[in-house]
Amino acid sequence: MTIRLATRFAPSPNGHLHPGHAFSALTAWDWACAHDARFIVRIEDTDRSRSREDFERAQLEDLAWLGLDWEQPVRRQSEHMTDYARGLDRLRDLGLVYPCFCTRKDIATAAQAPHGPEGIVYPGTCRPLSKDVRETKLATGTAFALRLDVARALDLAERLKGNRLTFTEEGCGPDGENGRLPVDPRPMGDPVLARKDGVIAYHLAVVMDDAAQGITHVIRGQDLFFATPLHRVLQVLLDLPEPTYLHHRLITDETGERMAKRRGSTTLRDMRADGVTPQDIRRMVGID
C-alpha cells in the first residue's frame, strides 16, 4: 500500500501569529501542494495555563487568510492526554524515566550546569538518587517533574535498532547539514517529559502526534534542529515510524533577532488591519 505524504503546521495558541509563523506555514503548505501531500494543522495546547481559545481562533483565521486549508477535524493536544500518558508509561516501564525534585533555582545555580540550545542544561542532580531517597521525597509530597535518562535511552534505542541511530535531513539544518545524520541527544541533558504540574512536554507529545497523524515530513524551523536526535530516540523507543525532516531558515526582525511571540514581534493580525495582503507576506518572507 502506498502511503500518501503528509506534513503539518503546529502552532501553540498562546499568542498571535507573526511573519515567522507565516513563513513556516507557507513553506509546509507549498511543499504539500508540490508533492500532492496531506497538509495538517495541529494545535499544540498541552500547556492549558497559557493556551487560549481566542488565540486559537485568531491563528486559524490568519492561516485561512494566507490562503491555506487543511484536513478536519483539527487535532488538539489537550484532547489526547491519555495517549501521551501511555507513551510516558512505556518509557517508565523501560526504566528510562526518573523523578526530578530540583527547582529552577537549583538548576540555575548548579556549578556544573552548562548551557545548551534550550538554556541551562540539567546537570543530572536527581538521576543518581537512591530508591530510598526518592521514595522519601515522594512520600513527603515534594513536587517533581519526570525526566528521561537520555544516555540510557540512546543506548537502548541503538541496541533495539542494532546500529548507530541516524535521521534524514532534507532541508539544510543550521549549518548546511543534509542527508543521513548521526543521532546524539546527550548535549541536551536529561529532558523533562512531564512537568511538575503534570503538563506533558513538547518533545514527547510531538513525536506521538506526528505518528498518530501519519506525518511523513516534519517541516519546521532551524531552531528545532537540535531536538531532532531526541525525537528520533523517542520514536525508536515507542516503536513509532521515522519521518523525514526539513529544517528551514528563520525569519528575523530589523535587529537581526528571530521573530518570536515573547519578543512582541509584529503580528499578522496587525498587518492585516494595516492593509497588508497575503502576497505581501509572501514577498516579505522571501518565498514569492
How would a textbook summarize the main sheet?
3 strands, parallel
N- and C-termini, Cα separation: 36 Å
Which spans of ≥5 residues are poorly predicted at pLDDT below 50? Answer: none
Instruction: Give the count of helical stretches.
Output: 10
Structural features, described:
By secondary structure, the protein is α/β, with parallel strands linked by helices. The protein has ten helices and twelve strands. It has a three-stranded parallel sheet with strand order 1-2-3. It has a three-stranded antiparallel sheet with strand order 4-7-10. Strands 5-6 form a two-stranded antiparallel sheet. Strand 2 (38-43), helix 2 and strand 3 (75-76) form a beta-alpha-beta unit. Helix 6 (150-161) packs across helix 8. The radius of gyration is 20 Å and the shape is globular. The two termini are 36 Å apart. The mean pLDDT is 93.
Summary keywords:
three-stranded parallel β-sheet; three-stranded antiparallel β-sheet; 288 residues; alpha/beta; single chain
Describe this structure in a few short sentences.
With 288 residues, this protein is of the alpha/beta class.
Sequence-ordered SSE layout with sheet pairings:
Layout: E1 6-9, H1 19-34, E2 38-43, H2 53-65, E3 75-76, H3 81-93, E4 97-100, H4 104-108, E5 115-116, E6 119-120, H5 131-139, E7 145-148, H6 150-161, E8 166-169, E9 179-182, E10 192-194, H7 202-212, E11 217-221, H8 228-237, E12 244-248, H9 268-273, H10 278-285
Parallel strand pairs: 1-2, 2-3, 11-12
Antiparallel strand pairs: 4-7, 5-6, 7-10, 8-9
